[in-house]
Amino acid sequence: MAKKAAIIRGDGVGPELTEAAIKVLKAAGTRVELIPVDAGYEWWQRHGGDSLIPKETWEVLEQVDAVLKGPTTTPPEPGAPRSVAVSIRQRFDLYANIRPIKTIKGVPARLGDVDFICVREATEGLYSGIEHRLTPDVAIAVRKITRRQSERVARKAFQLAAERGWRKVVVVTKRNIMRECDGVFIESVDRVSKEFPEITYEEYYIDNLAQQLVKNPQRFNQNIILGSNLFMDIISEEASALIASIGMVYSANMGDDYAMFEPAHGSAPKYKGQDKVNPTATILAAAWMIGYLGEREKMDAIFRATEEVIAEGKKVTYDLGGSARLSEMAEAIAEKTRQILGS
Q1: Which residues are bridge partners to 205 per DSSP?
Q2: Which pLDDT value is given to residue 107?
Q3: What is the DSSP letter of 103?
Q4: E strand or H helix at 263
Q5: pLDDT at 122
Q6: Which residues contact 38 (CB under 8 A, 6 or more apart)?
Q7: So what's the pLDDT on residue 343?
Q8: Cys-Cys link to 138, which of 16, 134, 228, 343 (CB 3.0-4.6 A)?
Q9: Distance (Å, rounded) from C-alpha 192 to C-alpha 322?
């Protein structure tokens, strides 16, 4: 039976990017059934309700094997629905957000070549959504850390290291201040580490890690950097700057039997409809998705094609020093993919 994937068009530049990704997937000859659906701030502005995701989209998400989510806008005002990403992560228990941070050939590395993976617990922490306005002048938020989710995301981090032959997991905490929450997290990591005796772990406090990423990022090469939700949201964004552009950074949200793939960047509404932004992150997220669904050869071809187009530098967007449109870069990647696969 053919696998199925939902394609959330998203907001801002999202529809342009997902269209580009679909073009490349089709060039690779994917047999995954791709089902475009709506969700996001723009849909909510038109229809309202208590979710940024319409009922019809939830029904599709329940039936497919994976999701490609275009960038979506999250309204910041109090009382607005939670983000599309958080809603899906919590609904399907996608506890591990994974962002590879790797220098791509042909893109100047600001602070030297890097190659590591950020792993973020994605369902709880300060993103649990447990907030209260106690008085007009006082608000509180609960940082929920559980042993179950901490152990699961730690196991995913150690498994990723083992699969790559890497030997270290860097654990991000602020345990000298938040002793109980980060105590639960580091205890969980320690327990899971015993399942992987060939891999060590080292604890860094969040402020020191943020500084070390700028001072000497190569110290983290061939490491997995693991942490709770807010810490790793910030750290993975900082790490993205090491590889030229946030438009290059793709990610996955993994559960035990379901996954959502997405570019790491936002919806960039000021560029909507301009055919301008870098499609790399969305295309590589889509490629990772079909690899997850069993099409590894096609995934590898798209990754190789993307790297070759960027290395050539002829059909790349403005942030990579070129003058190509979004659609032109996507078409170049699609054509290169066809050549690699001989189709």
Answers
A1: 173
A2: 81
A3: P
A4: strand 259-263
A5: 95
A6: 8, 9, 54, 56, 57
A7: 67
A8: 134
A9: 46
Confidence (pTM): 0.92
What is the predicted pLDDT for the residue at 129? 85
245 vs 239: CA distance, rounded Å: 10
10-residue block means of pLDDT along the chain (343 residues)? 94 97 98 97 93 97 98 86 93 96 84 96 92 96 97 98 98 97 98 98 98 96 97 94 86 96 94 96 98 97 96 93 96 98 84
Half-sphere exposure of 210 (CA within 13 A, CB side): 12
CB 206 within 8 A of CB 194: no
Dihedral (CA of 157, 206, 91, 189) sign: positive
3-state secondary structure of 134: strand
Q: How many CA atoms lie within 13 A of 209 on its CB side?
A: 24
Nearest partner of 160 among 115, 104, 218, judged by Cα: 115
Compute CA distances 234 → 198, 222, 226, 255, 319, whole Å. 29, 20, 12, 21, 22
CA atoms within 13 A on the CB side of 206: 18
Question: In this predicted structure, what is the pLDDT of residue 149?
Answer: 97
Sorted by where each starts, the structural domains of the chain and their CATH numbers stand as: 1-95+249-343 (3.40.718.10), 109-243 (3.40.718.10)
CA distance 326 to 315: 9
Please list the residues that pair with 96 across neighbouring strands. 121, 254
